[in-house]
Design brief:
This protein is α/β, with parallel strands linked by helices. The chain has six helices and ten strands. Strands 1-2-5-6-7-8-9-10 form an eight-stranded mixed beta sheet.
């Protein structure tokens, strides 16, 4: 596992990398850019083509200090080219490593729902979906049907105003962030304010990750306040 600068987790755990773009939120994928930049190297021998790293499978079991672990930050756990049995192998490790909190994010909510009854959802497995605009908020309809103890959203990159009120009563956490990188798309600060206010009214923990610009974290606080709330006050040391 690798220590990560992502502010809402501690480590990233990538048993495989590689994916395909499926929606507007993927347009400037940081993982694709990084993998293709280093194509042919030890870290990314196949660029962003699907590549397994089985030597990393049991890494969470070797770390004894409870941590938050972002699952497959360099891919999508439910990527269509990955078999059900392969996904089950990761769930088996997460089930065994009960002292960690595993955070899964996907844009493939239909595949997530298809496999949901084939795996064991121990309380330490958090499941989230990415939502970049109102159209793709439909992924939340699949998320709420999954028996994860904590269901959450990553509204990043936020590229339009999103109304989450129809689903907030079924969610435990919402993360918001703007896009970074050279080709970042502008996020209206009022879109982030709107989601903050929606979460406050619904009593859902709200985590403001970043604004947008060439570098991540272009504003450290939303309206002068740091919003780093966690579901059920869960946070590793």
């Amino acid at each position: 596992m690798n220590k990560t600068p992502i502010s809402w987790t501690d480590f990233s755990w990538n048993v495989w990398s590689g994916c395909e773009q499926i929606s507007p939120g993927c347009a400037h994928c940081y993982a694709l850019t990084l993998a293709e930049r280093f194509r042919g190297t030890t870290g990314f021998p196949n660029g962003f083509d699907l590549t397994y790293r089985w030597h990393k499978l049991n890494e969470p079991l070797k770390r004894k200090k409870p941590s938050m672990i972002f699952v497959n930050s360099d891919s999508d756990l439910y990527f269509e080219e990955v078999s059900d049995d392969t996904i089950k192998r990761l769930f088996d490790v997460m089930n065994c490593a009960s002292w960690h909190q595993f955070q899964i994010l996907t844009k493939r909510s239909e595949r997530m729902l298809e496999i949901a009854d084939k795996v064991t959802w121990t309380p330490n497995i958090w499941q989230g979906v990415s939502v970049e605009n109102q159209f793709w908020a439909k992924r939340i309809d699949d998320l709420v049907k999954v028996p994860a103890h904590i269901k959450f959203l990553s509204v990043e990159p936020l590229i339009d105003l999103v109304d989450l009120t129809p689903w907030l009563s079924c969610l435990q956490w919402v993360i918001v962030g703007g896009e970074s990188g050279d080709k970042f798309r502008k996020m209206d600060i009022n879109w982030a304010r709107s989601i903050r206010d929606q979460c406050k009214q619904a009593g859902v923990p709200f985590f403001d990750k970043q604004g947008n610009g060439p570098l991540p974290g272009m504003y450290p606080q939303l309206d002068g306040v740091e919003h780093h709330q966690w579901p059920e006050d869960q946070r590793s040391g």
